[in-house]
Amino acid sequence: VQLQASGGGLVQAGGSLRLPCAASGRTFSNYAMGWFRQAPGKEREFVAAISYRGGSTYYADSVKGRFTISRDNAKNTVCLQMNGLKPEDTAVYYCASGVRGSDEYDYWGQGTRVTVSS
């Protein structure tokens, strides 16, 4: 399984970025997908998740109302739309593929760096 995240970059506070993640190697539509992030000097944290059909989404409190996760099962992609970015959103963002029947994730992308300047 391969997960390729992209779309990171440098943006001013209040700006927006869209992070797509392309998946291959197994039936994409059978698995929940998630986004995580790791800021410098901090542990990796959950950002958002979406169920395998896209009917349910989940967000960390810190991004609720600003970030939106979506998926296109026909294109094997999951996206994280980030609006109203804050300097504290600065991190490397990772997409991950879920383990069926659990809240665990077993495959991870290489990460894409997001830097938000104040």
Fold and architecture overview:
The chain is mainly β. 0% of the residues lie in helices and 52% in strands. The chain has no helices and 11 strands. Strands 2, 4, 5, 6, 9, 10 and 11 form a 7-stranded mixed beta sheet that branches. The termini are far apart.
Topology:
Layout: E1 2-5, E2 9-12, E3 17-24, E4 33-38, E5 45-50, E6 57-59, E7 67-72, E8 77-82, E9 91-98, E10 105-108, E11 112-117
Parallel strand pairs: 2-11
Antiparallel strand pairs: 1-3, 3-8, 4-5, 4-9, 5-6, 7-8, 9-10, 9-11
Number of strands: 11
Distance from first to last alpha carbon: 37 Å
**Principal-axes shape call:** globular
Q: Percentage of helical residues?
A: under 10%
The radius of gyration is 13 Å
- Class derived from helix and strand content: mainly beta
What is the strand content?
Answer: over 45%
Helix count equals 0
Arithmetic mean pLDDT: 96
Largest sheet entry = 7 strands, mixed
Strand/helix succession: EEEEEEEEEEE
Could you name the ranges where pLDDT drops below 50 across 5 or more consecutive residues? none
